[in-house]
Write a structure and sequence with these properties.
The chain is an alpha/beta fold. Helices cover 41% and strands 21% of the residues. The chain has a seven-stranded parallel sheet with strand order 3-2-1-4-5-6-7, sandwiched between helices.
């Protein structure tokens, strides 16, 4: 029986660059791992016609409350789906989301998860000015680190991303290099 891998992500807006990145990662995985079953699932609010995209309709309520409800709905729906379907796979490659409370809350119910890191999260969380940036950095430093302690390994697009946190020293880490 072939190894079954789920490549999973949640993005409020699946911009063209990120969509191309997900497509590329799926294509290269099928070339490099021909004997594996590689499924990709991405939850988003974007209305994109791709077999791996699951669109969650955002709240029609305007303003900050509507945006907050949409965020909660998207993240909750995605994490519920992942918890329910993870057992169909031998491993889950989770595109790591910065300061994601829902990832944190699901940590005890997820098995065989490896996170994929495309940035230095703690540094990125604190880039913007203001209180929101400080809250986001605090959340990432605390709940993000707690989530990562529960994963099986870390995949970074650069070596620096796999060793950015001291707690990753005991994790299985690898670098996902772009093959030209």
């Amino acid at each position: 029986m072939p190894l079954r891998i789920l490549h999973f992500g949640v993005h409020r807006d699946l911009a063209v660059g990120r969509l191309d990145q997900v497509r590329f990662e799926s294509e290269i995985a099928s070339q490099l791992l021909p004997d594996c079953v590689w499924d990709t699932v991405v939850f988003t609010h974007s209305k994109i016609q791709e077999p791996f995209v699951k669109t969650v309709t955002p709240s029609s309520m305007p303003g900050l409350i509507g945006q907050s409800l949409s965020h909660v709905q998207l993240r909750r729906t995605a994490m519920r789906w992942l918890i329910e379907h993870q057992h169909d796979y031998d491993a889950v490659l989770l595109r790591y989301a910065i300061a994601d409370v829902f990832q944190f809350l699901a940590r005890g119910r997820l098995n065989n998860v490896f996170t994929i890191h495309h940035t230095l999260e703690i540094e990125e969380a604190g880039v913007a000015e203001g209180h929101f940036s400080q809250i986001r950095r605090f959340l990432e430093s605390n709940i993000g680190s707690a989530f990562i302690r529960n994963v099986n390994g870390i995949v970074g697009v650069t070596e620096e991303m796999t060793w950015a946190r001291p707690l990753t020293a005991a994790k299985r880490c690898c670098v996902w290099r772009r093959v030209q």
